[in-house]
Amino acid sequence: MKKELTLFDKPKNVKILLICFYCSLVVLLIAEFFIHPHPAFYFEQIKGFSAVYGFFSCVLLIFLAKLLRLIVMKKEDYYDR
Amino acid sequence: MTGDLLPPALIFIVAALLVPFLRGKTQSGYMLLIPVVSLLIIMNAPMGRIWTFDFWGYTLIMGRIDKLSLVFGYIFTIMAFLGILFALKVKDNLQHVSAIVYAGATLGVVFAGDFLTLYLFWEIMAVSSTFLILASRTDAARKAGFRYILVHLIGGLFLLAGIVLYIQETGTTAFNYIGLSGTASWLIFIGIALNAAAIPLHAWLPDAYPMGTPTSTVFLSAFTTKSAVYLLIRTFPGTELLIWIGAFMVFVPIFYAVLENDIRRVLAYSLLNQIGFMLVGTGIGSQLALNGAVAHAFCHILYKGLLFMAAGSVLQMTGKIKCTEIGGLYKTMPLTCLFCIVGAASISAFPLFSGFVSKSMVVTATVNENLVLVYLVLQFASAGVFHHAGIKVPFFTFFGHDSGIRAKDPSWNMVLAMGLAAFACIFIGVFPQPLYNLLPFTVDYIPYTGAHVVGQLQLLMFGALAFALLILSGYYPPEIKSINLDVDWTYRKLGTAAYGFLDRTLNAVNRNVEQTLMTVVKGGSGFFRQITVHLVLFFSINLWLLQGYRDKHLALKKQRLYDDVVQGTLPVGIGAAVAVSFVVLIYVLT
Questions:
Q1: Domain boundaries, chain A
Q2: Where does the sequence pass through the membrane (chain A) (predicted)?
Q3: Which uninterrupted H or E stretch holds B52?
Q4: Which of B11, B61, B536, B574 is the most exposed place for a label (fewest CB within 10 A)?
């Protein structure tokens, strides 16, 4: 029998992964200063616009989804009753 | 030379009928050969109109070969091959036959040059795909399949009504660009939009697709919606309404995808979101936008198929597919996990994966048209897609909490199908030019610029940061065993309630009307009977008085006659005499 992977059972590995992830975010922010910009609209001239937009899109998405749940969530047997 | 060969649609459909007569490896090889042969025929088909037949004075065009139909023909044939390979070991001929017929009918729709051919294959598509849902053979699947076919038959009727009007107005069955003007075009538009699952005609998709078998959903995800997108690109490009429908579609379903517990339903909602991108491209209608819509459909079929294959593998091997029931599967299903991540990266449009080179064409088209709001919605949705399809699907399935399930990777054919699809996703992402060469218009677009790569990565990675922070802080909405109401509520709950309401109101009206009517009729018949009795008595008594009957004798005769008339025991002769006397009376009076 093949041994199973336990890569993410070790907290150390998860920590390394998270550190790499945070580093990549910093690299992306710095990288923007070294590329030739093609702003689609005037607001894209602001450095880090995409980063801020991406972050708050997801926060808003979760926030609104939680609100939506109050309206649309039903028990699994809703349609069978 | 190829003009003499059968059209690929007929090859698929005729070949499907022989599948049940074959067994084992012969059957497997035979099924895989069908898309290969079709692909060769499509590749060698000359441009223009081929495979035309005369039918009752109409010309059926089964081969309208141009760049637009060819690119869809290629991808549908490739996906049919991958789907058949993935389902190769399924011991259920119903599924094999319906899947192959379904794929064939889709090719029929794509290459149809006239409305009669189109409608024929359109309906074959609806019926054969229903069997793929029913193939699960559960009660829930049976009910969902029933709703699915009803919705599609209604959509088909809209299309048919539109086609009839169209033929009457234009005098031809051939079609190309139609555009929204007049009743016929609206009816056709609604019929096609329903198959494209355009909001608000979308609810059949997340309702029915997650009910398919582990393998049949792969076929379902590829054909119906994208063949409708193809038709919209052909018949309604530049229709502004499509931009708004598309923008709505990229936006709303992602909220549902975040909340859903069933992984395949999450994928179904993200499918709606991806079609939204294609509809925005179709609605804009510029060459770049239409190229983007086509390219995105091409890439989407591959990565969505791949994601449904990964989900199907999990369902097949564990028997479970809900976030609350699975997790930690990377330990024993590493290959499925890897391929799922490739699919997730592609749908999220990560650089070097297929979604990046296609979705960005549509986004850039909105920039060129100066559609700021649509642009912002698409960017919001791009971050959202990464959030639910890119992270949620792999995270809750293969990582997250350890469910304790130790299922292995599926059989070789399923792994191979996923591997080929994953390879295609990466290949297109790294070398987009071969795909760009297939597109209907010349491509003047470079996806890999520094600004685009960094901007897209910022958008995605900071979206991921939000996910990580929300998960770590515990604010992320927990997975709950539940369902979420959608538009199908209108026909599932409201419909049932309406039936009950009609039963109570209209049937009550019915009962009351019947009662009133019966009273009137009874009263009426009593009235007319009494009139007869009294008329008869009136004439008889005068006759008897003349004859000299008096007192008791007269009363007795009166009583006897009354009983006879009321009980209908009057001798026939008397009745006849009365009738004749009436006739005589009338004659005398006139």
A1: 8-37, 38-74
A2: 16-36, 48-72
A3: strand B48-55
A4: B574
